[in-house]
Amino acid sequence: MATVVDDLLPLAAPAPRAADGLWFGKDLSTPEPLPQAAIEQAVALMRSGRLHRYGEQGKGYPEPSLLEQEYARYVGSKYCVAVSSCGAAMFLALKALGVKPGDKVLTSTFTLAPVPGAIAHAAAQAVLVETTAKFVTDLADLERKAATSGARVFLLSHMRGHITDLQAVREICDRHGVAIVEDCAHTMGAQWDGQHTGTWGKVGCYSAQTYKHINSGEGGLLVTDDDDVAAQAILMSGSYMMYDQHILKPAPEVFERWKYITPNFSMRMSNLAAALLRPQIAMLADRGTRWNHIYAQLARELSLCVHIHIPQRHPKEAFVASSIQFTLDLHAAQIERFLRECALRGLYIKWFGSVAPVAFTSNYGHWHYLGETPALPQSDGVLSQLLDLRTPLSLTDDDCRLIGRIVLAACDIAASA
Ligand SMILES: Cc1ncc(COP(=O)(O)O)c(C=O)c1O
To answer: Is the CB of 323 under 6 A from ligand 1?
Structure first.
């Protein structure tokens, strides 16, 4: 069934253009090329044929073990386990924390499909927590649901890089005996109050999917300081009995507790993915600076539009923007018109209030497998006006100015429609 926004996607047919001649036309989903060192190491590995991380006669440490060591040092965690995706990391985190079929798991309403997907994978039941107009967790709703839902885990999504006050989240969760799992798919390199996201709770989960801060196509990293969580994650990720080939690993007696009662879910990272990622860790700081420059340019341009609101970021939030979100203070039909006018000018903006999922973007109303969800009036209001623009590192200052002009023109037309 065609939806009202289907034709906003940049598909094969040339798009009709607007009469005012404004045209952007860059593909915002174009990633950066991989660094030369990554390409060379990947080619060497392919020549060797050794793409699986474990071998029966382990010689030296495989690429994922080295990556784990380097990433744990980067964020300041005791352990890191390299896995096949962030979705896999979140699933393993829930399992390692003892989430059983039918258990309740608190999670963010403003997030993307892999987050409720990880909860469903563990056969648990998502309990959605409201999102504020600053695109972060509503702490009062978290407190209420932590007290009443019976959930023992909060899978907190730092969606699109917006970080909830982690000190406050921790205090609430501690008060109610709830463990925190952070979904840091959009916050690699970001910190709250000088401490990396992913290290505030029991487990942090990161993504290395192409549109994230580091790119191996698919890949995930799980960090924790907890011996039992680390041992289970290593075993469940599919290390067979070769967990000794990890550099960062709990003591043998911890594995003894788990090795006969923990299933292998085969969610390892390959040597190839780790080889592609290792040189990218050192690039995170520079990428963050470039992304935040683009964010600042765009925020300035977009704020010229009276209908657009961009939340003020908290001073403790050292975010890394790989996209920009804003509220467009218009009603649904006008927002559809706005998106259409942008698309006519070669600019494709996503909308979390869309009636149907479009490309990567969906909202909780589209995840029917969640079953009945309680009323979420605040999140509904926020999502219904929430727009999202991917910001690849290739965007120049001129691009940002052009995007600003297109948005202003489209907004003028939409607001008077
Ligand atoms: C908010 C969020 N969390 C988690 C994930 C999962 O990442 P992965 O694709 O590595 O499973 C994604 C992926 O896009 C995401 O957007």
So the answer is: no
- Residue 186 Cβ inside 6 Å of ligand 1? The answer reads yes
- CATH code for the domain defined by 284-415: 3.90.1150.10
Domain extents in the chain:
36-49+59-281, 284-415
* Identical topology for domains 36-49+59-281 and 284-415: no
Q: Is the CB of 126 under 6 A from ligand 1?
A: no
Q: Which of 209, 210, 211 to mutate to test the pocket of ligand 1 (most atoms within 8 A of CB)?
A: 209
Query: Could you tell me the fold of the domain covering 36-49+59-281?
Result: Aspartate Aminotransferase; domain 2 (3.40.640)
How far is ligand 1, taken at its centre, from the CA of residue 31, in Å?
16
pTM (predicted TM-score): 0.95
Measured in angstroms, how far is the CA atom of residue 114 from the centroid of ligand 1? 6
What's the per-residue H, E or C state across the chain?
CCCCCHHHCCCCCCCCCCCCCCCCCCCCCCCCCCCHHHHHHHHHHHHHCCCCCCCCCCCCCCHHHHHHHHHHHHHCCCEEEEECCHHHHHHHHHHHCCCCCCCEEEEECCCCCHHHHHHHHCCCEEEEECECCCCCECHHHHHHHHHHCCCCEEEEECHHHCCCCHHHHHHHHHHCCCEEEEECCCCCCCEECCEECCCCCCEEEEECCCCCCCCCCCCEEEEECCHHHHHHHHHHHHCCCCHHHCCCCCCHHHHHHHCCCCCCCCCECCHHHHHHHHHHHCCHHHHHHHHHHHHHHHHHHHCCCCCEECCCCCCCEECCCCEEEEEECCCHHHHHHHHHHHHHCCCCCEECCCCCCECCECCHHHCHHHCCCCCCHHHHHHHCCEEEEECCCCCCHHHHHHHHHHHHHHHHHHHCC
User: Cβ(183) to ligand 1 under 6 A?
Assistant: yes
What is the best residue among 112, 269, 325 to mutate for testing ligand 1's pocket, by most ligand atoms within 8 Å of CB?
112
Any atom of ligand 1 within 6 Å of the Cβ of 111: yes
Q: 115: Cβ below 6 Å to ligand 1? A: yes
Q: Is the CB of 92 under 6 A from ligand 1?
A: no
Q: What is the pLDDT along the chain (417 residues), one digit of tens a residue?
A: 334 444 455 555 566 788 899 999 999 999 999 999 999 999 999 999 999 999 988 678 999 999 999 999 999 999 999 999 999 999 999 999 999 999 999 999 999 999 999 999 999 999 999 999 999 999 999 999 999 999 999 999 999 999 999 999 999 999 999 999 999 999 999 999 999 999 999 999 999 999 999 999 999 999 999 999 999 999 999 999 999 999 999 999 999 999 999 999 999 999 999 999 999 999 999 999 999 999 999 999 999 999 999 999 999 999 999 999 999 999 999 999 999 999 999 999 999 999 888 888 889 999 999 998 889 999 999 999 999 999 999 999 999 999 999 999 999 999 998
